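Would you kindly consider the sequence and fold I have copied below?
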Amino acid sequence: MDAFSEELMRSVEDDDQVEASIGCGPEIHLPWLSQHLQNTVSHGHKGINFAQTTSICLNFIQEALLKHQWQRASEFLQHYFQALEDFNSQKRQVALQNIWKLGSAILYHHPKSNVETFNAFADRMKNIGVQNYLKISLQHALYLLHKGMVEEAYRNLNQAESWRYGEMSASQEKIIKLIQAYRGLLDYYTWSKKRTELSKFDMDGFATSAATQDMHSYFRQASVNLHEIIKIPGVWDPFVKSYVEMLEFYGDQDGARQVLTDYAYDNNFPSNPNAHIYLYKFLKKEKAPEDKLISVLKILHQIVPSHKIMLEFHMLLRKSKKEEHQKLGLEVLFAVLDFSGCTENITAWKYLAKYLKQIMMEKHLNWVQEGWSSRKDWWPTFHFSYYLAKKNWKENKILALEKAFTSGILLGKGKLSWGHLSGAPSSPDTYTSYLLKISVHSIPLLPPQRTR
């Protein structure tokens, strides 16, 4: 290890036996603190001073982290280890969690840190606080995964899963489930690699059979753990996707559909847009009936009305023969364009312009009135200002023209518009008139032709 690693690890080692000497440790001596802090240590009761100094030290560490001062934070952390000498066991437990979280963050970012240092720190922390052994082991494995050390991470998870100390608490049982789930995810990763290798290389019958059996063994290991974790209410996107991919590969379409349906519709699970997206894409791939696709996307529309799949949803609704679906198709487009991130989505504007024209021909003006009534006070400024007309014409003339058509219908005068029905002020300064002024002034004048 380098000097930085040795210095930090020395602080951990010094506190390795700290619980055996609780209450007999010396006063915290922090020469690097301000005179105010030194005065706090030298006056009053020890218990109060101890709590105050450790609290101030913790604040300094957090401030250094916020400023990305990793070396300064590591120096403060070495002194904060003395918080493990607190008389209160609950406060010692909190201090231990703080040391792990802050220390791992420092080691993750410190320019002189390396995997060896992080591993040594993690192993020490596991041994100091057995109650946090499982949680630290899981986070340690995730760090190793981030570094691309898959085998080391898998080994770490295996060790954690087999670890036992006294009676298992409810919280520890949950962490064990997580550890098993991540081990299942790594089994899936190995399965996926072997599947790719099997498809790339030409093998004889015996070699192919052996490789297939090896791959299937990883599927069995992964599926057991992944199946267990996705039964617990929560957000399990990568676990669900991996499990479904394996089920599809082995032809269990019914099983895959059931997993996705439960994940999307189980009321015990938190609201999750991705759950409905996964189910929609699966059903679309299966060429499910359009009514079924619409029912899935209806829920996604309620959760994330600006999602890019909403334009697909609009087309499904538009093709439907049900009037309620066709009406919802207009509201879907309005809702997409309500969001600032979609204001220049040219596809959405094209769909809206075309659909408004269709609705006018079919004489469903009440649909537009209903959708426009809640937007008439803010859409003109949000979408149809002079600034936007100028900007759109300069950057994307097709977008400008689509918006001009829509603006002309919603705000303008004439037989093609319902501006007089919308309650919007009748003003010549609409987006369309702005655009006309801009476009006229932007057309270059041709030089006069010479006469022969």
In short: The first helix runs from residue 3 to 14. The chain has 23 helices and no strands.
